[in-house]
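#onboarding

Welcome to the new folks! Below is a worked example of what a typical request in this channel looks like: someone posts a single protein sequence, and someone else replies with the predicted structure as tokens. Don't worry about understanding the tokens yet, we'll cover that in week two.

Example request:
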Amino acid sequence: MTFNSFHDPAHLYFVTASIIEWKHLFKNPKYVKIILDSLAWMQKQKRILLFAFVIMPSHLHAILKPENETISNILQQFGSFTAHEILKELKLDKQQNSLKAFKEHKRDDRHEHSIWQDIQAKNIYSEDVLWQKMEYTHQNPIAKDWNLAEDRADYIYSSARYYDYKQKPIIEITDINEWLASTPPPRTAEGA
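Example response:
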């Protein structure tokens, strides 16, 4: 796996992870649960703060902040664990067509299959970029190419319901507004 980001412990990251060949693996709630469980576990283990997410049929977006680890370590752990668990379930479910596709398009000779394309992590370097990425994440399910819900807050695999209506999302998140209010701005050379 490669990651297009540099680690800055003060930064949040906009993460995009897409399934090989854009397969709609996450139409099946069993595979979505693997992703949700992994994100929830990483939060409980204090590896990440998760501020926003959406899991689409073929990909996911998340806004997160690594805690005590680099973004590349976090994404490697997430990608490796979820790929392993998804492959295990695909084999149990005898999903031969999917297994064949993931084998034919493997990206690393050390592994028999690949589930993920390169996982992208982009540094969020300003509050304007943060709000743009939050909006993009939450708008995904109602985009014309997807049309998965009429109201973005109705899409269960998203944190939009929390930000739009203060309803509990399917997994816990850290409220970005509360976090911003409690986090001092980074010190600059002028303010040092």
